[in-house]
Amino acid sequence: MRRLTAAQKSLVVSTVEVQLAHQPMVETRNRKPMRLNRIASWELRIRNLRVYYTVEEEAPRAVFIRAVGVKVRGHVTIAGREVEL
After folding, report:
1. What is the pTM of this model?
2. 24-51: per-residue pLDDT in tens?
């Protein structure tokens, strides 16, 4: 998240708190499971930002944010590097 602007960081934090606090493994319009990849099993879309996360299902349930990227025209950049998901 170091490369994000202050506004983007604030947006990510507030959206993650709302969207992932309850039932983070339920598919919604902005939240979906991903195909098998090295980064994470779920994706949360926030405008042009993507939050990649995994969920520990055992009690107590925990959500782990693995990466935050910026998507532009089908290309995702995480920490300044374009990644293929």
Report:
1. 0.91
2. 999 999 999 999 999 999 999 999 999 9
CA dist 34 and 48 (Å) reads 17
State residue 57's pLDDT score. Answer: 82
Domain ranges, ordered by start, for the chain: 6-83
Give Cα 70 to chain centroid, integer Å. 10
φ/ψ (deg, to 5) at 17: -60, -40
CB 30 within 8 A of CB 14: no
Compute the distance between CA of residue 50 and CA of residue 13 in angstroms, rounded to an integer. Answer: 12
> By three-state DSSP, how is residue 12 classified?
helix
Reported as type and span, the H/E element at residue 36 is none
**Is 84 in contact with 71 (CB distance < 8 Å)?**
no
Q: Single out the residue of 47, 46, 44 nearest to residue 55, CA to CA.
A: 44
Neighbouring CB atoms inside 10 A of 49's CB total: 19
